[in-house]
Amino acid sequence: QVQLVESGGGWVQAGGSLRLSCAASGRTFGSVAVGWFRQAPGKEREFVAAISRTAARTAYADSVKGRFTSPRDNAKNTVDLQMNSLKSEDTAVYYCAATSRYWYRLSPEGLHNYDSYDYWGQGTQVTVSS
């Protein structure tokens, strides 16, 4: 079992930055890959980013490439989501998720599928005002 807790959400003006953090407890954190998803009102949950167990590999949705990064610190059991140049369309509830499945078996399409992830945080709201 892995317990995930997100923090760092809030309100920001367009063009600004926010940093989300996902703190994990339970199972050895280095044994899971972590993904970030978001869900806007009336829309389906969509993939944002993923990072492998050792942080050697990452994947990003086209909509956030070049603006978001996801650093990982296994010593601290945390994965962050650094969001820069935020746009109003980034407004959503953001979730971190974890999977024990191997990266090479998921990549690339499986990383984008929320069914690939076994553990989920409660979500944190990000609101970008234009």
Task: Outline the structure in words.
The protein has 130 residues and is mainly beta. The chain has one helix and twelve strands. The protein has one helix at 103-106; strands spanning 2-7, 10-13, 18-26, 33-39, 46-51, 58-60, 68-69, 72-73, 78-83, 92-99, 119-120, 124-129. Strands 2, 4, 5, 6, 10, 11 and 12 form a seven-stranded mixed beta sheet that branches. Strands 1, 3, 7, 8 and 9 form a five-stranded antiparallel beta sheet that branches. A hairpin with a 6-residue loop joins strand 4 (33-39) and strand 5. The radius of gyration is 14 Å and the shape is globular. The termini are far apart.
Short overview:
The protein is mainly beta and 130 residues long. The protein has 1 helix and 12 strands.
H/I helix tally: 1
Radius of gyration from CA coordinates: 14 Å
Chain-averaged pLDDT: 95
As a percent range, the share of strand residues is over 45%
Proportion of residues in helical segments: under 10%
The sequence of SSEs as H and E is EEEEEEEEEEHEE
SSE order and pairing:
Layout (H helix, E strand, L loop, with lengths): L1 E6 L2 E4 L4 E9 L6 E7 L6 E6 L6 E3 L7 E2 L2 E2 L4 E6 L8 E8 L3 H4 L12 E2 L3 E6 L1
Parallel strand pairs: 2-12
Antiparallel strand pairs: 1-3, 3-9, 4-5, 4-10, 5-6, 7-9, 8-9, 10-11, 10-12
Keywords for this entry:
mainly beta; 1 helix; 5-stranded antiparallel β-sheet; 7-stranded mixed β-sheet; single chain
